[in-house]
Structure formats: C-alpha cells, structure tokens
Specification:
By secondary structure, the protein is an alpha/beta fold. Helix content is about 40%, strand content about 15%. It has a 5-stranded parallel β-sheet, with helices on both faces. The longest helix has 18 residues.
Length: about 140
C-alpha cells in the first residue's frame, strides 16, 4: 500500500536528501513536493495544476518558506475542516523555542529539527516512516475531501 507524503520544502538539496532517505526507508512512499507555502495550499486545495492531486497521508512542513511561511501554512491547514486531520509534522532547521511553541499553538502534530549530517537525517526519515506511516493509525482519506 502506498503512502502519500507532501513535503513542503524550498531547498532543492533538502528535497533531494528527503527523496533519497524515503527511497531507502520505504519504496511505497509517493513523495510530492511543494516549494513554497502558496504552492502547498494550492496542492492541498487541489487548485489549478493540482486539481487531481492525491490527498496526502502526512505533510512534512518547513517553517522558513518563500511567498507564505510554514507558520501561515500550518494555521491555514489546521483551520480548514477538510485538511485539519492530516498529520502535519514540522521538519525544519530551527530549534528556536519560539518556533517550537508557535508550531504547537498552531496544532502541529510534532516538531522535528533537521540534522545536518545525511546519516542522521536518513535515520530521522526512517523514524518518521516507522512511526507516522507504519505504526500510527491514520483516518481513512475522505474521497473528494
């Protein structure tokens, strides 16, 4: 069974590393990428070129994004009845207490800081896969929702 993951990340290097790490962790993951907050919301709302986008099982969201930052994206996701049940994991380089607190105030499902070493990053992605995409019981996707 495939899992749909939406990665909201503007760094091409981090996108590449995440793709490689997920490929090693679980080949059944279908990773979609939005490179900024505006594109992420268009994807989630199935607007424009994203009209047929699959609903993600989980969202991996960076905080520092162009056009619309991750905090704004998180607030929009969690205030939208059709999106708020999608687990949204903050995956960012920031370990600032203010960012952690704000993310949980906005109802992030968890907050993870990206390690700089690839081996550590790959281990974190394996943990995300093992927990969120293997062990956790997620609600069935609402068709058309």
């Amino acid at each position: 069974m495939t899992s749909e993951v939406l990665l909201v990340e503007d760094s091409p290097g981090d996108v590449r590393l995440t793709r490689e790490a997920f490929r090693d962790a679980n080949r059944a993951i279908h990773l979609q990428v939005a490179s900024d907050g505006v594109e992420a919301m268009a994807y989630l709302r199935r607007e424009g070129v994203h009209a047929n986008a699959p609903r993600p099982d989980i969202i991996l969201l960076d905080l520092n994004l162009p056009k619309m930052d991750g905090r704004e994206v998180l607030a929009l996701i969690k205030s939208d009845d059709s999106l708020k049940m999608i687990p949204t994991v903050i995956l960012t380089t920031s370990d600032a207490e203010a960012d952690i607190v704000k993310s949980y105030q906005l109802q992030a499902n968890c907050y993870l800081t990206k390690p700089v070493q690839f081996d550590e990053f790959a281990g974190l992605v394996r943990c995300i896969n093992d927990f969120w995409l293997t062990r956790v019981k997620l609600p069935q996707q609402a068709q058309g929702g």
